[in-house]
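INFO  loader      accepted 1 record
INFO  loader      residues=367
INFO  predictor   begin
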Amino acid sequence: MTTIYFASNRDVLHETSTTSHLFGERFNQLGPQCFRVGEANVDYAGDDPKIDGNWTVGAGKLYPENLQDRNNKPATYGSARLFEGLRKLLKGGDCDVIAYIPGFANTFENSLQRAAALQELYNSEKQRVIVVLFSWPSNGEVAPAWNYFSDREDAEASGLAMGRALLRLVEFLTEMRAVDRETVVQARRIGQVPKPEDLRQCTQRLHLLAHSMGNWAFRHALRKFSDLNGGHIPRVIDCAFLMAADEDNDALQERLKLRRLEELANRTFVYHAANDIALTISDTTKGLPDRLGSDGPKNLDLVSERVFAIDCRKVSETALLDGRHQYYRLRDEVIEDIRLTLDDQPQEDRSGRIVVRPGRSWRLQPR
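INFO  predictor   done
INFO  writer      dumping tokens
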């Protein structure tokens, strides 16, 4: 059994559920800016974690929100419980966190399955990971075509909720560091050095993974977060993985799009495939040409030197209905490449073969 922690600005159906039918397909009843957090169990029964059908969503629950305290005490949020729970998990072991934003046509339950699969697939002996899901209200339907535009509008509107979630994380980290500074000061006053276990902070890393339309949602999350934080974007993410991004190919060049991601993340990895059928359809039928997930950044020389482009055109093929768009979770070559980056030792693959990554871009080859 796998526990997946999540946040969502979907409409709440149940506070607890034995089948995790916690959310519907529309926005939170208080507005798209409001989100709830919680956890759900996902069971794995099968030979291949890449297959959605091998994952069964089980019991789930939302963390309570105390928004109006009768005794005038500060409001308490479910996000505080989530962050504190993750802090304890990370403090107790060598494990990173990946914040996952899924793309178009995903239900909440399906997104939980994908998150659990990614947690299984991206784990390695050198680096364990915990995947935390943000599920925006995609309705899970591909056809008819208006579902795409409906989801695109919902993804954009969800940017405020994501930005608020990111702000709460930064506030949590800031408060935690302040407490640790005071602990250090107090220890020094009595001639002692605080032990690592006396400090609240851990040394583990936070990463971001956005797939397809999730990148469009994240563009708006980044802008809203900047607005909420007085224009300041602190660097709290190590690796940002932009997978098959349904975003403009100049997004990392433009300040009003994704350029300020260079302030938030240490490194950005753009996985793209020119033969991505889903993005080709986005171009030819929906009037959205020049996708970042098709040919990568428009000009690497005009973006941060910490942006890397990985060409997946030779490893994009999976099942026909996947549209060469799901390689980030279905192709071993891509999974291995992500593991190497997360390991922070990208020198050899699982078989011991030396991997040379030339410069800021490379092409993955089929095995």
